[in-house]
Design a protein that fits this description.
Blueprint lengths: L5 H14 L11 E2 L3 H13 L9 E7 L7 E6 L2 H19 L15 H12 L7 E6 L3 H4 L2 H8 L5 H8 L3 E3 L3 E3 L12 H8 L3 H5 L18 E5 L2 E6 L2 H15 L12 E4 L4 E3 L2 E5 L5 E5 L1 H17 L5 H19 L5 H22 L5 H8 E2 L10 E2 L34 H10 L6 H9 L21 H13 L7 E5 L9 E5 H8 L10 E2 L2
Parallel strand pairs: 2-5
Antiparallel strand pairs: 1-17, 2-3, 4-8, 4-9, 5-6, 7-8, 10-11, 11-12, 13-14, 15-16
Helix pairs in contact: 1-2, 1-3, 11-12, 11-13, 12-17
Length: 533
C-alpha cells in the first residue's frame, strides 16, 4: 500500500529535490529539479511511472575521502527519477527492517548516529568492565562488494524486489570509459544503498557471539559474551581476551564471505583497551588510573589544524569578512561534533592555535602597521555576553570568530535499545527525546525554536530534521553554512517578521523556501526539471 501511496511519492520527491545534499547533482539524465513547479511535475511523473519505471545506469564521479583528501572515493549518482523511486521504495522497506535490526547498529538509521555508537561503547567499557581487548575492524569496499544474490534473497518477497534488482544491475557510466555492467555492489550515492548495506550486515552481532539478557535485564549483554557496536561498515567488538577477539574475527570473516564482504586487513587490528583505539574520529582509552576517557582523536585534531593553517594562508589578501565566512563554519562544525566527549583541553588548545593564526594573518595583511594598531583593529570585546577583549572580529559589522573554549560539554543521551521512530508505540519517547536534544544554535534561535515548538510559522512543518543530525565535523560545517546562516533551501532558517496585526513585532523562524514563496512571484511557463549543464 505504501508503495502506491501518493503521500509517499510527495515525501520522497521533497527529500530528494529539496533536502538531500546532492539535490543539485545530476545523473546521466542531466536533470535536476530546483523550483517548486519542477518538483511538482517530477512528483506527477514519478507517481505515474510506479508500475513502469525502468532503472537507468548511474553516473560515476569521484570525491576526496573525508579522512585522506589525497585519496578519492567513487560515487554512483542515479538519475533524478531513479532517486525519487528509490526514496519511495526505501520508505516502504525501511520500517520492516527497523523492527528487525540489531540494537547496537547505529549507522544510516533514523534517530541514530555516531554519538549513539560512542555512548554505547562508553557504557560497555566504563568502570571495571572485563572487556579489555578490542577488535577494531573495517570492511573493505563494503558498498562495492555486496553480493546481489544474497541481498535479493534477504529481501525475500518484498513487492518492489524487482525494482531493487534493476537498480543493482543497472550498470555504471563513467566519462571517458563508457558503460560497465555491475555484477556486485550497490552504488555509494544511491538513496536506498545505505539501507541495503544494513540489510546485508544484519545478523553480525549474533555471528560474533553476542547474547542478550531477557526479563528484568533485557537489552544488556550477558557476562562472558563479546559486545559489538557497529556504525555502517565500521565495527568494534569488545572482548575479554585476545584469544576471544581472534576467534570472533575468524567467525565474522566466515560469516561475511557469502555476502561478498571481507575485512580490510590494513585497518583491522586487535588492541588492549589500555593502548586505546580510534573510532569515528574519537579516541577511546582506559588510563592507568582505571578511568575510561573518550577524546577527539589525534588524527582528527591534526587534520583540523592543518586545514586551518592552509585556509588562513589561502586567505592572505582577503578582507576580514571573507576570513570569518570561511573559518567560522569550520570551527562551529568541529566543536559541535566533539562537544559530547572529554574535549575541554582540546578546545582550549585549539582556541590558542586559532588566536595565533588570526594574529599572524592580521600582521601579514598590515605589514607596515604597528602591533597596537593591529590589535585595536581586529581584536576586541565583540561578544557582548563575555568579558573577553581578545575576540577576533570585524568592527564594521560586529561579526566575530567564536572561540572553541566557549563551547560547553554536553553528554549525549543514548537511544534506548532497539527503539525506532517508525514504531507508533514509541511516539511519546521520540517526542521527549527531540525536546531534550538541543541543536548547537545560539540561545536566541533556540528560544525561537522552543516557542514555535520547532515548527515553521508559515507551513507548520519541522524546521530541523532532528531524527538524523549531521554525522561528521564536515556535516556539521555544512549544517552551519546552510541551516543557520544562508536562506536558500527548505530546511534553512531565517529570521522573519510575520506581518500580522497581533504579532507584527515578533520574530519567527521559517523555512527559507516558504519565505521566498510569500515574497517572490511564481515562475511563469511550463518548466519541467531543468537540465544541468
Amino acid at each position: 500500500m505504501l508503495l502506491r501511496s501518493r503521500a509517499n511519492t510527495l515525501v520522497s520527491v521533497r527529500q530528494v529535490t529539496q533536502r538531500n545534499m546532492g539535490r543539485t547533482t545530476a545523473g546521466i539524465d542531466g536533470l535536476v529539479a530546483l523550483t517548486s513547479q519542477a518538483r511538482a511535475e517530477m512528483a506527477v511523473q514519478v507517481h505515474a511511472s510506479i508500475g513502469s519505471h525502468q532503472p537507468s545506469p548511474v553516473r560515476r564521479v569521484y570525491i576526496p575521502k573525508a579522512r585522506d583528501k589525497a585519496k578519492m572515493r567513487p560515487l554512483g549518482i542515479p538519475g533524478i527519477s531513479d532517486r525519487c523511486h528509490q526514496g519511495r521504495v526505501r520508505n516502504a522497506l525501511e520500517p520492516e527492517w527497523e523492527a528487525r535490526f540489531e540494537p547496537r547498529s547505529y549507522g544510516f538509521r533514523p534517530g541514530r548516529g555516531c554519538h549513539d555508537a560512542i555512548e554505547s561503547l562508553f557504557n560497555t567499557l566504563r568502570g571495571k568492565s572485563k572487556r579489555v581487548w578490542i577488535l577494531d575492524a573495517d570492511l573493505a569496499g563494503a558498498f562495492d562488494k555486496i553480493s546481489h544474490e544474497y541481498l535479493l534473497e534477504a529481501i525475500g518477497g518484498f513487492p518492489a524486489r524487482g525494482m531493487i534488482a534493476g537498480w543493482l544491475k543497472a550498470g555504471i557510466f563513467e566519462a571517458g570509459k563508457g558503460f560497465a555492467p555491475t555484477e556486485e555492489g550497490t552504488p555509494q550515492g544511491g538513496v536506498i544503498s545505505p539501507l541495503l548495506l544494513n540489510i546485508a550486515l544484519h545478523g553480525l552481532e549474533e555471528a560474533a557471539g553476542v547474547r542478550y539478557h531477557t526479563g528484568n535485564y533485557a537489552g544488556t549483554v550477558r557476562a562472558g559474551c563479546p559486545a559489538l557496536t557497529r556504525y555502517a561498515d565500521d565495527l568494534v567488538v569488545c572482548c575479554h581476551s585476545r584469544q576471544q577477539a581472534e576467534q570472533v574475527k575468524a567467525r565474522l570473516a566466515g560469516w561475511l564471505e557469502p555476502r561478498g564482504l571481507a575485512f580490510n586487513e590494513a585497518k583491522t587490528r586487535i588492541v588492549p583497551l589500555s593502548e586505546g583505539f580510534d573510532f569515528l574520529g574519537f579516541n577511546l582509552r582506559r588510563y592507568p588510573n582505571g578511568k575510561l576517557l573518550i577524546k577527539p582523536g589525534a588524527t582528527a585534531i591534526k587534520r583540523l589544524r592543518d586545514r586551518l593553517s592552509k585556509e588562513f594562508r589561502a586567505l592572505r589578501g582577503s578582507n576580514i569578512a571573507a576570513v570569518l565566512a570561511t573559518i567560522t563554519p569550520i570551527i562551529r562544525g568541529w566543536v559541535a561534533y566533539y562537544r559530547t566527549v572529554v574535549s575541554a583541553r582540546v578546545f582550549h588548545a585549539l582556541t590558542e592555535y586559532l588566536w595565533k593564526l588570526a594574529y599572524k594573518w592580521a600582521c601579514w595583511s598590515h605589514r607596515n602597521k604597528p602591533r597596537c594598531w593591529i590589535v585595536d583593529r581586529y581584536f576586541g570585546k565583540f561578544n557582548k555576553f563575555r568579558n573577553d577583549r581578545w575576540v577576533f572580529g570585524d568592527r564594521d559589522t560586529g561579526a566575530y570568530l567564536p572561540k572553541p573554549a566557549w563551547t560547553e560539554i554536553a553528554r549525549h543521551t543514548l537511544v534506548k535499545g532497539g527503539s525506532s521512530p517508525d514504531d507508533p508505540a514509541l511516539a511519546s519517547y521520540w517526542q521527549q527525546r527531540r525536546q531534550k536534544v538541543k541543536p548547537p544554535l545560539d540561545s536566541y534561535t533556540v528560544r525561537l525554536l522552543s516557542r514555535q515548538d520547532g515548527r515553521c510559522s508559515l507551513c507548520g512543518e519541522n524546521l530541523l530534521t532532528r531524527d538524523q543530525p549531521p554525522q561528521s565535523p564536515q556535516g556539521w560545517e555544512r549544517w552551519f553554512l546552510q541551516v543557520a546562516r544562508r536562506a536558500i533551501t527548505a530546511d534553512y532558517l531565517v529570521h522573519h517578521d510575520t506581518p500580522s496585526a497581533a504579532r507584527s513585532n515578533r520574530t519567527h523562524l521559517v523555512h527559507a523556501n516558504c519565505y521566498r514563496g510569500r515574497q517572490l512571484p511564481r515562475a511563469a511557463g511550463n518548466t519541467m526539471a531543468q537540465q544541468k549543464t
